[in-house]
Amino acid sequence: RDHALTLAAELRSGYLAGSWREAASTFDVTDPATGAVVASVADCDVADGLAALSAADAAAEEWRASTPAERAALLHRVDTAMRADQENLAHLITLETGKTLTEARGEVIYAADYVRWYAEEAVRVHGRSSTAPTGDFQIVTVAEPVGPCLLITPWNVPLAMVTRKLAPAIAAGCTAVVKPAELTPLVTLAFARIVEDAGAPQGVVSVITTTRADEVCAALLADERLRKVSFTGSTAVGRLLLERSGQRVLRTSMELGGNAPFVVFDDADLDLAVEQAMIAKMRMGGQSCVGANRFLVQEGIADAFAARLGERMAATRVGSGFDEDVDLGPLIDERAVAKAQRLTDDALERGAREVARAEAPEGSCYLAPVVLDQVPADAAIISEEVFAPVAAISTFSTEAEALARANDTEHGLAGFVITASLDRARRMAGRMRSGMVGINRGLVSSVAAPFGGTKQSGLGREGGPEGIAEYLDMKYVAVPAF
Ligand code: ADP
C-alpha cells in the first residue's frame, strides 16, 4: 500500500493535448478500504475538455494518414510497457478500487491483451470488392477512421475498459479523449504516461479527469469536431448520452447494465455448477456487468446447489486488497454497500432465506458475501443489478419456465446455462435474449470475442474483429468494371 501511495502522489495533473497540465482545481481520490484520501487529481472543466478535443482534432488528419504498421508498432510498445509495469499498475488499481492485488494483476494482463490484440488487428482491416449485379461496375469498400472519439469508462475495471476502447480506436486511426470514472482516475493517468512514453503523437490520446462529467461530456458531444462516443456504465447515463448523441448523429457504442441469469439444470454436474457460479458471481467482488445477478436453479438440484454455494461463499476471506491472504476486498463505495443491503433486506422481507453469510472486517465499504435462496419473483434483486457479492437463488421446474424467467428483463447482456445435455444447451443458447451466453462457463469475457448486449444493455460490440469496426466507417467507391 505504501508503494501504491507513492505512485499515486505523482499523478496530479491531467494529460491534455499531449502535455501534463495542472487544472484550476483538484478532487480527491479515496481508498475504499480505509476511506482515506490517497491522491488529488486535476478536476478538468469544460475549457479543459474542449482543449483536449482540439488536440484530438488537430492530430486527427496526421493520425489517420499514419500507416497500419505504425499504429500496430505503437500499440505493441504500449503492450510491452504495460506488462513491464504490471506491479505498479496493479497497485494503483487496488488502491483506488479496493479489489485484491491478484485480481488487479489479472486486470493489467487482460488490459494489455486488448492492446496486443488490436496491435495485431491494426494491419488486418479489410474492405471488400464485388461486381455490381448489373455487371457494369465494381463495388470497392475502404474502411476509414470515424474521427475524434470520446471514451467514457467506469470504475469497476478501470484499466481494461480504457484499453478495450482506446486500443481499437488507435488501431483504426482515430484520436481520442478518455474520460475515466471520477472514483478511479489514477490508473488511467498512469496508463497515459505509458502511452506518451511509447511515442504516441501529441493529441492522439488525452485524459480528462473530472467531477463534472455531465457538463464536460455534454460540451464535447455538442461540438462538431467530435464524431463518436463510446461509453461503459449505467443504462440511465447511456440513455442520456444516446439522446445527446442523437442531436449530432454521432456514432455510438454503449456497454450498459446487465441482469445476468445463471441457470442450473438438474442434470448439471454439481461441482462444475458451483465452481462456475463462484466465478460468475465473485469475479470483481460481484461488481461486474456480466456477473450473475439471478441464480435460477431447477428444483431437483436447488437445495444441494444452495448449500454448496453457501459453503464456498461463507469461506470467502474479506479484507484489504493489499493483503495477499484475502479473496475479496471492499466494494467501491458506501453507496454500493447500501444498495446491496437494501436489496438483501428487501428479499428477506419478501420471504427469501439466508443460506450463508461470510465474515467481513469493520469498515464502511466492506460487505460480507451472502447467499439467499427461495428468493421470490417480486423481490427487487430480481430486476435490479445488485453489483455486490450477494447470490440470489430462485427455483424453477421446467425448461420453458427457466427460459421465460431468464428473458424476463429489460436487459440482455450475458446469461449462463449449466447443463449436461447438449440439446438443452443448444436450445437455451438459441433462445436466450442476451448478447452473450456461457455454456457450462461462468466467464465469457475474452479479447477475441464480441462483448456486448441486446435490449437495454447496449449497442455495439467490444473485442474481436467486431471491436475495431466500431471505430471505422465503410466508404464505398464505385469503379468502372475491370
Ligand atoms: P456507475 O453508476 O456504475 O458509477 P455511471 O454510469 O454513473 O456508472 O458512470 C460510468 C461513467 O460515466 C463514469 O466515468 C462517470 O463519470 C460517467 N458519467 C456519469 N454521468 C455522466 C454524464 N451525465 N455524462 C457523461 N458521463 C457521465
TrEMBL record:
Any one GO BP annotation for this protein: gamma-aminobutyric acid catabolic process
UniProt xrefs under PROSITE patterns: ALDEHYDE_DEHYDR_GLU (PS00687)
All residue ranges annotated as the Aldehyde dehydrogenase domain in the record: 20-477
InterPro entries attached to this UniProt entry: Ald_DH/histidinol_DH (IPR016161), Ald_DH_C (IPR016163), Ald_DH_CS_GLU (IPR029510), Ald_DH_N (IPR016162), Aldehyde_DH_dom (IPR015590), Aldehyde_DH_Superfamily (IPR050740)
GO molecular function, one term: succinate-semialdehyde dehydrogenase (NAD+) activity
PANTHER family, alphabetized: SUCCINATE-SEMIALDEHYDE DEHYDROGENASE, MITOCHONDRIAL (PTHR43353:SF5)
Descriptive protein name: Succinate-semialdehyde dehydrogenase / glutarate-semialdehyde dehydrogenase
Coiled coil: none
